């Protein structure tokens, strides 16, 4: 390694023990610029603004100016973005009004983010680089941890992107292509509650409250909203009870329930009993968005372990740390708060949702739809998605310890042991085939997200299933 490289590593190590020098908004880069490639910096500023504007949920410079001058109203807000329209403008306006305010010193602050300072969008690039340079070329991850203590709107991605334009750290000036505009909700084409992921999870070696060895975890694909139910055991009876409680308390029954750790035959039988007992229509999905599922599970386990003592003592603390906190905080995967997306303002949502369910069911072969009857009367319906078409769902990229929201420090957390199985219950198994009577005649069913609703779907994706076989799907892709 060359001298400069060694020095930089030394400086980084040192920076862990010295005070961080917080950059100020508007602080000049001049004294550092002579060492940097100015062309790359200029390119970076342009790229950054373009990137910021592509990120949903981030204030643009124009919106920021309106807030700072207290001139924001629905009309001028509408003019700031072509994504806003008559149907969503009021909500957006109220959200902004509730969230941002100008303090006595004319500084814009984010109420939802511990009242930290909102950096003027056009100044973010220089602020981040200034922080990087004032602190001996500090790594972007570490830099972000310090910046977010003071600034509300400097995300991990922003920090990484801006630091990439330091010509000393990135001598060849190459940017990672996936860094461009990778912000969007990959499941925006699904409705809230269209697909819900369910797993049995055994978070600790000891039972919660001395009673609940497992928990049933649910996560909505579209909104990432999480629900949990405590489980005394993983018996079919307990599973049916928890699943019924969940389903019966939802505003509508999800179109598909997905799982990667539950035995499908078991899940089928449990759903069959629930469906007939309560006359419900339930669908079992076959999507193999394994990474999405893994990310959700490891995130939950991580957060419960962080608060292990409280969580072991109280189920409600598990709910708080595993579900409520994440449901109510900003999620960078979807650029929104899960709770807001779950009850989002998709126009005509209730009707569209049922229409979609009907369409999907109509396309299924008769053998994929099981009508449950009792004394000749229909008592609920179960339907099964076809495996091949389900592969058309995009999957998430793997998120390791950094996860989706940015509301906590990741330095002092217990490590996640990759070898620990997600679910240590004896019933854990990989996907098994649906019951043979049903699987024999599975027909293709087109359930890829509505092309009009998810324009981002265009590039081939490769999925890995639990058996590590690789599946390539022909026509799903993500716009980068
Ligand atoms: Zn650098």
Automatic annotation (TrEMBL):
Residues 409-435 are annotated as: Disordered. This is LANO_0C06370g1_1. Residues 421-435 have a biased composition (Polar residues). One of its GO terms (molecular function) is nucleic acid binding. Gene3D superfamilies: Ribonuclease H-like superfamily/Ribonuclease H. InterPro entries: RNaseH-like_sf, RNaseH_sf.
